[in-house]
Amino acid sequence: MNREDLPGILAREWDVLIVGGGITGAGILLEAARRGLTALLVEQRDFAWGTSSRSSKLVHGGLRYLKHGQFALTRESVHERVALLTDAAGLVEPQGFAFGDYTGRKPGRRQFMLGLAIYDMMAGRRARRYVDAADFAMLAPHIRRDDLQGGMLYQDAKTDDARLVLRVLQEARRHGGVAVNYLGVASLLRDGGKVAGATLTDALDGRAFTVRARLVISATGAWADALRGQVGETPKLRPLRGSHLLLPAWRLPLAQAVSLMHPHDGRPVFAYPWEGVTLVGTTDVDHGASLDVEPAITRGELAYLLAALQWQFPQLALGEGDVLATFAGVRPVIGSGQLDPSKEAREHALWLENGLLTVAGGKLTTFRVIALDALRRAAPLLPGWQADLRPLPIFDATPPLSGKALALDAEQRERLLGRHGAGAQALCDAAQDGELAPIPGTQTLWAQLRWGAGMEDVQHLDDLLLRRTRLGLQLAGGGLAIMPRLRAICQRELGWDDARWEEEQQRYLALWRRHYSVPQGE
Fold this sequence. Notes:
The protein has helices at residues 6-10, 23-33, 71-87, 109-123, 133-139, 161-174, 224-229, 299-312, 367-378, 410-420, 424-429, 446-455, 461-468, 471-474, 483-493, 498-515; strands at residues 14-19, 39-42, 58-59, 92-102, 129-132, 148-159, 178-180, 183-191, 194-202, 208-218, 237-248, 257-261, 268-274, 277-281, 285-286, 325-334, 348-353, 356-361. The chain is an alpha+beta fold. The strands form two sheets. Strands 3, 4, 5, 6, 11, 12, 13, 14, 15 and 16 form a ten-stranded mixed sheet that branches. Strands 1, 2, 7, 8, 9, 10, 17 and 18 form an eight-stranded mixed sheet that branches. Strand 8 and strand 9 form a beta hairpin. Helix 2 packs parallel to helix 6 (161-174) and helix 12 (446-455) runs parallel beside helix 15.
């Protein structure tokens, strides 16, 4: 979209204005647009900038939620996991998990296998099994052998969370939805005391716009209380930070995901292969810093995750020098007064307050359920609109790739279709010589980097390296080695002159050092 067209686009009459460009907002935009509503989504920063690019990347049923009796949430999540594996193949992928059964450590074999039996029953298939210590050690090399009795194996799934958001937005646009990044809400408009739109500010050039809509939906996640405050409501959210590490796959080589209970407090921690690296997570602590500042892992959280790795993989002697990158996200959890953050429920909630419909809480896996719930609540507020709100396939089917794309292997083609949908063919067609090769150390093609720069609303270098691709998390120093070749791509596709490139590179590297590297200090 050409931003010069914004005044005309925003002057339209809208059925729904969705505030927030994470997975919840994207899901609502898709489900609204495919059911005939005129729907506009605005995001004050970049699409997926918040929690939706900083999750644990797991599409899971929430096995640990069974422990707290959240059976409905687990059943719902398992069902959506199955749907995503089917409808988003190449973007959502199966991932085997292994959990060691150690003498005296909880949960024990009987309790864990009971939970897995319920998990499998909800999914309608048996994926669990127990293996003895020798077989488990072969499936999960380098693990602690002391007191190992055997292990439990089960199945979940993983994704690239930012690409999932972008794919959902792409589908929404194909159905007529409009999504604009770097366009934030300055204030809500009122009509007879009810919210009737918003005044928006373009973060790139300061232009102001007034948008009117029959309904405003806040899908701003951890930031929801700020918008609710404009209609006089008191805070309901408890922002919780989850931080993660990324290590080179050769330092922590895993075929299965390894799940464990932390030796200090018994919280679940995991490590699994993701996009050519090994991802380790997660912490669960109250986030007291300003939500306007990008979150980052602390020294305490780094030590906590390394302690888990050192206990589970003692042979590897892992330390902070092995960490490629870090990231932290703030979860939009609805506060209930629990002392332990990990015991807070993860269900979503809807609040209609003075004409503002707020969607809060929930999980990456259940974004479609959340979106449909929001539209059911919205229906009485949109006279004359009637729609069947039963779930539709998450994504429309896409034809197989042809032409240049046939030089790729079957797995690479499936990955492209999963991440780019109907745009995958044009991406391959636009590739220059050698650009259908992967960037060393990753599964990302050079062509995806070019496509992201030219066709996916990139405004800053971090948009490209941290969300359109994940190279800033996969490559040493945030991708320093590829900067010369990246410069040529950005200058051609984005029209950046030398001065703009230097400014963007310095801005990105400073951001990476502050928020995505190993934290310095005590």
